[in-house]
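Consider the tokenized backbone below.
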């Protein structure tokens, strides 16, 4: 039976990931943020440490230390890592799903319910981000807490701590739940090992960050300037509402979740504990003001447990609400509707295009200036593919990969998570090239109108530069253009 469940789980994840990949345009890469992981992974695997630019500062411009280390191992083993990482995500997804299927009372219903969220497959497999790893750890930890297995929770805690920064909040919540859910006479005994592994792993991580990077949290935290706590709350309140209406199956499962919250005294005990476990996952995105990515990235890791909780209550709640002959068709219908509308509701297809365009830009720049004695400095807004493909130094104007930009005063957010730019630092850096995307409106917003300033127009010109058989349209510093050896053609 165990092998059959594993096969069902792997097939479900593989087919769902394939369907999401096709609907996303069959991308050859992950998204641009996944390429940032690969930049650090390449440099770490080559012995340069955790640096964005070789020979540059140590900076934690990634959000998952564990995923960066995993990517580094894959870089050392494989010539190209995109396909191996995709298959790793399939395995992580299969482990996640298997753990839930083993506990589902109605396996077919659970699998249909689970597979009815194409955004989960997109984020946990296709993007090549750490989302699938984070989802697996949260799922296994949630099951351990719900089933009162404090030993398993204690073993999972160190992995959780080095996977995502919000694990600091998750860990404290898990310790509290383990204490509350345990029998009265054994509460301290149950919670102690979880507290010990959490405290040791978190202390070790903070000590390492302070020693190696000089800061207690990832650089991405400092780069994402926000207008204030209450503004975040107001912005974040729309995040769960948007998720509720992101798909037909999601809508049904979330309603079941809300039903359990309201009528928890009648719920299955495991389902009720899962509800309590999931609360930080629902609340944290609200506290940070939501997310700029489409398809509700922060809520995807909660999906397996939401489905398990929902299927445990589905038959009881569906009885009397749907006629007996109609009931078997409800979940398949929701499944079909969810997938049919994903091309419209997904809103992340452009993230793959940004990554592919960035890689092309980086490779073009490398070929264009390979004959110069030194590489020109390139300033970017999207910092993944552009750096992954370019051999020279890249300056991240959003500050995610630059402590100087991250800690410089930033303006209020015009675009979520893209508000770390400081114009004074830009003019001090004097990058030779400024790469922008194909949306001038977006570029103007995140750079606070830099391109329209008189000073910028005096120092920079927008050209399509033709050199060494390639061309690239960008903003070039005039002094740099004049210093390029003869033979460079501009137009």
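A designed sequence for it:
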């Amino acid at each position: 039976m165990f092998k059959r469940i594993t096969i069902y789980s792997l097939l479900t994840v593989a087919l769902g990931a394939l369907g999401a990949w096709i609907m996303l345009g069959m991308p050859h890469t992950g998204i641009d943020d996944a390429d940032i992981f690969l930049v650090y992974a390449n440099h770490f695997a080559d012995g340069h440490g955790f640096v964005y630019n070789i020979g540059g500062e140590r900076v934690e411009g990634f959000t998952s230390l564990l995923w960066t280390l995993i990517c580094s191992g894959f870089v050392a083993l494989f010539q190209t890592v995109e396909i191996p990482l995709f298959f790793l995500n399939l395995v992580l997804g299969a482990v996640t799903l298997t753990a839930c299927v083993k506990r589902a009372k109605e396996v077919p219903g659970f699998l249909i319910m689970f597979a009815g969220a194409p955004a989960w497959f997109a984020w946990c497999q296709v993007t090549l981000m750490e989302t699938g790893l984070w989802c697996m750890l949260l799922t296994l930890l949630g099951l351990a807490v719900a089933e009162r297995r404090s030993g398993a929770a204690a073993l999972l805690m160190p992995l959780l701590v080095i996977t995502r920064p919000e694990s600091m909040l998750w860990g404290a919540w898990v310790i509290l739940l383990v204490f509350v859910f345990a029998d009265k006479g054994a509460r301290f005994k149950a919670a102690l090992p979880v507290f010990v592994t959490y405290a040791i792993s978190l202390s070790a991580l903070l000590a390492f960050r302070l020693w190696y990077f000089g800061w207690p949290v990832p650089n991405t935290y400092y780069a994402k300037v926000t207008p204030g706590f209450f503004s975040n709350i107001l912005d974040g309140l729309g995040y769960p509402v948007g998720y509720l209406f992101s798909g037909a199956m999601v809508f049904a499962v979330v309603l079941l979740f809300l039903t359990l919250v309201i009528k928890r005294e009648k719920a299955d005990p495991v389902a009720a504990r899962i509800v309590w476990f999931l609360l930080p996952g629902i609340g944290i995105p609200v506290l940070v003001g939501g997310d700029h990515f489409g398809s509700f990235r922060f809520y995807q890791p909660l999906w397996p447990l939401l489905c398990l909780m929902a299927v445990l209550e589905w038959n009881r709640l569906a009885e009397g609400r749907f006629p007996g002959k109609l009931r078997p068709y409800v979940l398949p219908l929701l499944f079909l509707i969810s997938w049919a509308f994903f091309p419209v509701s997904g809103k992340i297809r452009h993230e793959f295009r940004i990554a592919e365009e960035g890689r092309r830009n980086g490779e073009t720049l490398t070929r264009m200036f390979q004959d110069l004695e030194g590489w020109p400095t390139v300033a970017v807004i999207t910092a993944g593919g552009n750096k992954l493909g370019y051999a020279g130094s890249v300056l991240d104007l959003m500050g995610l990969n630059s402590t100087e930009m991250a800690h410089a005063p930033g303006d209020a957010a015009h675009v979520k998570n893209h508000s770390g730019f400081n114009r004074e630092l830009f003019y001090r850096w004097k990058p030779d090239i400024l790469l922008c995307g194909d949306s001038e409106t977006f570029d103007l917003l995140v750079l606070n109108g830099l391109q329209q300033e008189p000073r910028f127009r005096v120092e920079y010109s927008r050209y399509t530069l033709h050199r060494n058989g390639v061309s690239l349209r960008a903003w070039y510093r005039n002094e740099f253009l004049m210093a390029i050896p003869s033979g460079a053609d501009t137009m």
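The first helix runs from residue 2 to 23.
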